[in-house]
# Entry
Amino acid sequence: MFVCNFKLNGKKSAKIILFIIAIIIIGIIAFSVLTIFKAGANSNESENENNILNITSNDYTQFLKSAHENIDEYVNKTVNITGYIYRMPGFDNNQFVLSRTMILNSSNSAVVVGILSEYDKAEEYKDGDWITVTGTIVKGNYKGEMPILKITKLEKCDAPEDEFVYPPSDDKTI
# Structure
């Protein structure tokens, strides 16, 4: 038979308990700070280390909706986006719409959507050319106030695997 005599000292026990609580609190604070810094770094998954907002096919129309509804939030933001060139009568030589075709319903009704873009060498490209661009959003005017993409970099590209985009959600923002 084994007998263990265990005696607790009240002051020592209190110190040990306080030490353990302090370690737990420090751990929680450290974890919280780390989580906050990580969340800040990944707050917008489509934004890369250069603060360029990368617009994908999945969020193309959501971006357009949000940029038109909240122009001031997008002014001076740099975006990277892919689409095809679409010109309308009355455009200046340096203007086109960076477009995608949006499927409206199950019967495949579609409409062209996009952002008015300006590029100094726009005349070198023809309607229907697929391009990937990087540019800055500015507030402009074309039959009313609207965001305009001032292109700083343009590269021709192939059409994406899924050329079509779909209507934006009412409850989602970019």
